[in-house]
Please model this.
Amino acid sequence: MDSKTFCMHPFTGLATREDGAIKVCCRSHPIGNVQTQTLEEIWNNKTMIRIRKQVLNNERPPECAPCFNLEDQGVESLRQRHINGVIPEARINLYPEALDSLSDDYTMPFEIPTMELKLNNLCNLKCRMCNPTDSTNWNDWKEVEEFYVKENNYLVKSIQELKLIESPYLDKFTDNPEWWACLEKLLPYFRRVEFAGGEPLMDPTHYKILDMLKPYGHQIEVKYATNGTTLGISKGRTIHEYWPHFKSIAVNVSIDGIGDVYDYIRGNSDWNQVVSNIKEIQKIPNVSRIVGAVAVQVSNVLTLGKMIEYFLDNLGIVFYTNMVNYPNVLSAQTLPFDLKDLAVKRLQMSKIKVPTYKYVKENPILLDITLKQIDGIINYIWAEDQNSKWQDCIEFNRRLDQTRNQSFTEVTPEFKLYV
Model:
């Protein structure tokens, strides 16, 4: 593909957001909402048609800014991951003939092979970088709302309009018959269905959809973005009962630290339980891969080398990252220069060790993937100086520390000289 802005996503799938928004992918800005249009209408609405045209003609759609912003900072974006063809789920590999059904007017048949589903915010955790739209347990929003106001974040207005402080549960899909009718239409065409949340494995709606997918399970890989704290719910709805019905299962476990760092960032969780659950998942024959998905941020950037070693030498899972950009007070770019320099030096040291790790030796493809992840983090750290927000970072965490009985400096002792 000649276009330098080409992306596979506008031709191969859609993503949902808990408030009813529909997006090109999990990273993009919304292109529609199931409360005003059906999923089938959104697939070929004016915005989607424009986006398809733009990515084929060297233009950057504004809805896709999150990816292009990362690329400008030297970080591999989701767009690039899916056109470079290195990762197993790269859509350029999965759907090489995707554009064959593209019409001259940039419309496509409603035969979507991939859906990314975030249907509600039911969750048992309250991670530092999360918010009430993604977790029913995020109950100290008022303590830090002003920091989102400062960065003009859409969440402020959204949380107010959705009245999530008064009524935390968010679900715009369950009672929408047109949504379910469209989903039913798509069942024969699915090749990948990706669940996120909230926490999908504790969500009854997720199991309802798995029941709908079962007759087509032989052709479908199911992928999860899960916090790894649970393996199912009551009445036989667990991974052991459901996962064997599908072609394969890919699991991204959100792990933002090890030990105390993990427990600090991912409020309400238990590091030892997550490790135990990962080992249980590894026993299931059709699990194709397990990824440790790391949200890089101030409270873990100094310990990433230890995480890489633990993932690749002990736990036997892939190390993969995304950068926390909001709340931007948690971005690693807010660190003082000396701490940035320390983080980068530790990452450079970890690069030397990567080839020696057991899981890399067993899976040589992971060498380049891991080194690229490390280089992306380093590029991101230096790409922008947001140190002017360091005091806000301290105050943001101090307020959450008070409500959660935690300590910003105890979990990261290197911060003590800078607080």
Observations:
- The two ends are 50 Å apart (CA to CA).
- The longest strand covers residues 287-296.
- The longest helix spans residues 365-383.
